[in-house]
Specification:
The chain is 98% helix and 0% strand. The chain is mainly α. It has 2 domains: 49 residues; 64 residues. It is found in: Lysosome membrane. It comes from Rhagologus leucostigma. Its main location: membrane.
Length: 114
């Protein structure tokens, strides 16, 4: 009778081990599913961050183009102003010469009228 009891215990032990194994497999699966979910969330966040970065880069590029246009416009304005300044200098020189001539003429006239 002792032999048969031992067999039952061994069978019971095997069933127990199988239940434990099933439990651990379930635990591992749950763990894997959880970590997989976490990875998917992390990946989604990264993709969203990437698209946001692309958006920001696009905005920065547009701003740079606008600034470049403004700089070119300013450069053009400066060039025109330089040309105007040169013309004004010529006119000032001409006026100065005319003033000198007229003062000479006045001197000559005053000499003549004495």
């Amino acid at each position: 009778g002792a032999g048969r009891g031992w067999g039952k215990m061994a069978a019971g032990g095997a069933a127990d081990a199988q239940a434990r194994f099933g439990h651990s497999v379930k635990g591992l699966l749950t763990e894997k599913v959880t970590s997989c979910g976490t990875d998917v969330i992390a990946l989604t966040k990264q993709v969203l961050k990437g698209s946001r970065s692309a958006e920001l880069l696009g905005q920065a590029a547009r701003n740079m183009v606008m600034q470049e246009d403004a700089i070119l416009h300013s450069e053009d304005s400066l060039r025109k102003m330089a040309i105007i300044t040169t013309h004004l200098q010529y006119q000032q020189e001409a006026i100065q010469k005319n003033v000198e001539r007229s003062s000479n003429l006045q001197d000559q006239l005053s000499h003549l009228l004495k």
